[in-house]
Every structure is written in structure tokens, then in C-alpha cells.
Design brief:
magnesium, 9% strand, PolA_pol_head_dom, 24 helices, metal-binding, alpha+beta, globular, Hydrophobic Seed Protein, tRNA processing
């Protein structure tokens, strides 16, 4: 039998070294914020109050990813917080004051300061009965996860004191998401925490603790207590994280997706027609990964949602063909409708619903291009139908190539290269981003002797179809074509 003590000692020493290194780096980060932290701490101290940087701000400072948003907690009551900020901040908002939170802007920082909380939940809805507490420890234990329950005391003399009564630092070093108290109690208080835990998996690359995951699986149905708006906000943060594939997998495996995004686990039932993936679900995760690789300038939630959801119409359109094949004819049409319905149910903005569903609808259009046999008219229609989504459509179509056959993959990419070149050439000649009829409504009414009404719109649409088919026309040719159509009509 080998002695495990040396290995355990080495692991403990490594954790201690990492802990010291991370805390030292966080201290440097926070000292660099002294122009904000110290004067604010002085104002609270003058009033006889404590001030702590808390929650995600401390976690992110330790991880070296602190942004401009700073969260604090204090023993001062909300009205006192507002008075203290009023003479110092650039702007103050008290819209959250009934929940104990006062917000402010100072230079380029957004600040939220909340009175210690000791809330009670009725375990029917989500909103707690707001009760103010008197201690930092009491405030921290009511927070969602231990990695979010660390604090730094900010003193008037510029000094800092790291406070971690719940051992959140150990969870951070282990890369684990766990609740301060029993997860069942935490999730009964606020079921949104189940989804938040998976969101942190996406954002931080951590894993759920065994007990947190087990409780999520057992209590997934409780998410029904949460409003669609709150779920939507968490889903957007999840999809835009650095590890969304792992998070989506957790949504599916824990059963949360069955309640809030049932179309995603529904794809697990469908083997794709090329038999190159375990199922359409795995294919969709691959497309999401490849779409992320094509992003420029940060996460694009529209592209990411379209990549994940582009094949949700396949289960409903699956058909077994003679010879053992499987087809999914018109799954892009069905999928676009399903996406529109789901995103509306989640209260997404109309623009998001329209954009994601349109990308799903168009994602197969390219496969009719073949060996470059589209007419210029077909290319114009492709660009016009995509509109401002064209760049995202380019990325989605390229990401949708997941075949393991290198020759076929290369051929598909080369064919799309050719289409993009065709688009660029037509764009240079015709400005495809602004395809309009060659006559506007006023010119149509003058030429045909019409008053405003549906006939003008009908004529306008005819000229636009002609423009898409033939390219730009001179005014003389456009007028002749319109008069001919009008006479034949």
C-alpha cells in the first residue's frame, strides 16, 4: 500500500500557493480602484457604517476578470445609503430601494450598494419578503452560491480585509458551484438559482457540485414558478458565456431544458441523415461551437441561438425513406415556426425573435446553390431575404458543415466561397444592401394616375420583383415595364 500523505500534502500546498497568488492579484486590482473605493469607504465610516465589496465583484477580482460593475453591502439602511451617495456620485438611482438597493454612477463605474439582507421566502413565488439584517455573515449565507458569498472589507484608510466565512475560496480553487446551505433549501427559496448555477458553469467554466446537480435534477419542475422574463435573462447570459456547450448539456441532463427549452432535448431523438453524429442534438452543439469560432468582436447571441436551434424542426419532419435513409424535408420552415413560438413564450424582444427565426428559415437556402448554378436573380434574392442578417447567415451556413468527410467539407466551403464572391461582385455593381424598385411610390402614382392605396403597393412590389430578376433598370425602362404590367393587369 502506498502512502498518500505526501501527495495530499503536495496538493494542499498547491492550493495554498494558488490561494495566496490569487488573493494578492485581487488586492492589486482593488488597490487600483482606490480612487473610487477609499473615498466611498470614508463617507460610510464618517456615518458609522461598514462597507464591503461583495459577491460577483469579489469573485471576479480574484479570477482577474473584474469589470466596471461594483457591488457592495453595508449595515446602513437604504435611505442612509442614498444620502451618502448623493453628495459623491455622478448620478444616483433609488429604483431598487424597496429591496434595499441603491445604484449610482461614478466616473466609468456602475455601483450597487445593498443593505444586509435576511429575507424570508414563501416558497410559492420567487420574490422574498424583504427583511434587513445586521451582520455580514447573515447576508452572505443567504446568497446563491459560496463563490458569490465572499467579501472584502473596504476601510477608510484604504486597507482591505478578505472575508470568507463560508469557504467560497475553496470552491473557487476547485472550480465548483455549490450552495451555502443545503441546495434543496436554497432552490425552494428561489428556483431561479438552479438556472443561475448552470449559467455560472457557462461563464466561469466551473462544474456543479454533486449535491447541487442532484438537487437540480430532482427539483427541475420548480423552475415553473419563475417568470419567463427572468428565465430569458439567465439564458442569454448562459448562451453568451465562454462554455455554453457544457451549460446546454447540463440544461438537458438535469431536466431544466424540458421545462424551458423542450425543443433542444427533443433533438436527441433524431439521427441526422448523414449518420455522422450521434444525433441531431450533438450536431447542433457542434454547429454552436463552430459558429462561436467564427464570431468577431465578442459573443453574438443571435448567431448562437440560431446555431443551437437551427435544426429543431427535424423531429417533426423526420421521414424514413426506402433503403434505410432518413429525410427532414422542410425542417427549416417548421423549425422557424417553433423557434418563433418558443422565443415569444420566453418574452424575447420582437427583433430577436424575428432575427433568430429568419436565420433558421434561411440556413438551408445555400444548398440549392449547387456548383454555382444560381442566376444573378437567385443571388440577389438570397441577399435581400437575409438583409442585415447576411453576415450572420454566412457564419451559420459555414458552421453547419460538420461532416467528417474532409473532401466533402472542403467542397462545401469552396462552394460557399464562390457564392460570397458572386455576392461581392453584384454588391459592387448594384449595392445589394439597398435593393429597391427603380421607381418610388410618388413616381408610380404620377405615372399611373393613382391615389395612395393598395394598388400602389401592388405596383411597387411588382417593380421590386423585376429589380430582383433583372438588376437595375433605367427610369425609362422601369416606366415602360410598369406601364406594360399595368395594361396587362
Amino acid at each position: 500500500m502506498t502512502d498518500s500523505a505526501p501527495a495530499e500534502d503536495a496538493a494542499a500546498a498547491d492550493r495554498a500557493e494558488r490561494r495566496s497568488r490569487l488573493l494578492a492579484a485581487a488586492a492589486i486590482t482593488l488597490r487600483d480602484l482606490g480612487d473610487v473605493l477609499t473615498p466611498l469607504a470614508q463617507r460610510f465610516a464618517e456615518g458609522g457604517h461598514e462597507l464591503y465589496l461583495v459577491g460577483g465583484s469579489v469573485r471576479d477580482a480574484v479570477l482577474g476578470r473584474l469589470g466596471n460593475d461594483l457591488d457592495f453591502t453595508t449595515d446602513a439602511r437604504p435611505e442612509v445609503i442614498a444620502q451618502i451617495l448623493g453628495g459623491w456620485a455622478d448620478a444616483v438611482w433609488d429604483t431598487g430601494i424597496e429591496f434595499g438597493t441603491v445604484s449610482a454612477a461614478k466616473d466609468d463605474h456602475m455601483i450597487e450598494i445593498t443593505t444586509y439582507r435576511a429575507d424570508a421566502y414563501d416558497r410559492v413565488g420567487r420574490k422574498p419578503t424583504v427583511t434587513f439584517g445586521d451582520t455580514l455573515e447573515g447576508d452572505l449565507i443567504r446568497r446563491d452560491f459560496r463563490v458569490n458569498a465572499m467579501a472584502v472589507r473596504v476601510a477608510a484608510d484604504g486597507s482591505q480585509e478578505f472575508c470568507d466565512p463560508l469557504d467560497g475560496m475553496n470552491d473557487l480553487l476547485a472550480g465548483v458551484i455549490d450552495t451555502p446551505a443545503a441546495p434543496e433549501d436554497s432552490f425552494n427559496d428561489d428556483p431561479l438559482r438552479m438556472l443561475r448555477g448552470i449559467r455560472f458553469v457557462s461563464q466561469l467554466g466551473f462544474t456543479l457540485s454533486e449535491r447541487t446537480r442532484a438537487a437540480t435534477e430532482e427539483m427541475a419542475g420548480q423552475i415553473d414558478r419563475i417568470t419567463a422574463e427572468r428565465i430569458q435573462a439567465e439564458l442569454d447570459k448562459l448562451i453568451c458565456g465562454e462554455h455554453p456547450l457544457e451549460a446546454v448539456d447540463l440544461l438537458v441532463e438535469t431536466g431544466l431544458a424540458d421545462r424551458i427549452l423542450p425543443e433542444v432535448p427533443g433533438m436527441k431523438l433524431t439521427i441526422d441523415e448523414h449518420h455522422q453524429h450521434k444525433d441531431v442534438y450533438q450536431h447542433s452543439l457542434t454547429v454552436l461551437k463552430q459558429a462561436i469560432d467564427l464570431e468577431e468582436g465578442g459573443p453574438d447571441p443571435i448567431l448562437r441561438w440560431a446555431a443551437l436551434l437551427h435544426d429543431v424542426g427535424k423531429p417533426a419532419t423526420r421521414k424514413h425513406e426506402p433503403g434505410g435513409g432518413v429525410s427532414f424535408h422542410h425542417h427549416e420552415v417548421v423549425g422557424a415556426k417553433l423557434v418563433r413560438k418558443r422565443l415569444r413564450a420566453l418574452k424575447y424582444p420582437k427583433a430577436t425573435v424575428d432575427d433568430v427565426s429568419q436565420l433558421v428559415f434561411l440556413h438551408l437556402r445555400f444548398h440549392g446553390y449547387g456548383e454555382g448554378r444560381w442566376t444573378d436573380s437567385a443571388v440577389r434574392r438570397y441577399v435581400t431575404d437575409a438583409g442585415p442578417l447576411l453576415d450572420r447567415l454566412h457564419k451559420l451556413v459555414r458552421a453547419d458543415c460538420t461532416t467528417r468527410n474532409r473532401r466533402r467539407a472542403r467542397r462545401l466551403q469552396e462552394t460557399y466561397d464562390d457564392l460570397e464572391q458572386r455576392i461581392a461582385e453584384l454588391q459592387a455593381a448594384e449595392d445589394l444592401s439597398r435593393v429597391r424598385p427603380d421607381l418610388d411610390g410618388n413616381a408610380i402614382m404620377e405615372l399611373l394616375g393613382l391615389s395612395p392605396g393598395p394598388e400602389v403597393g401592388e405596383a411597387w412590389r411588382h417593380l421590386k420583383e423585376l429589380r430582383l430578376d433583372s438588376g437595375p433598370l433605367s427610369r425609362e425602362d422601369a416606366e415602360a415595364a410598369l406601364l406594360q404590367w399595368w395594361a396587362q393587369r
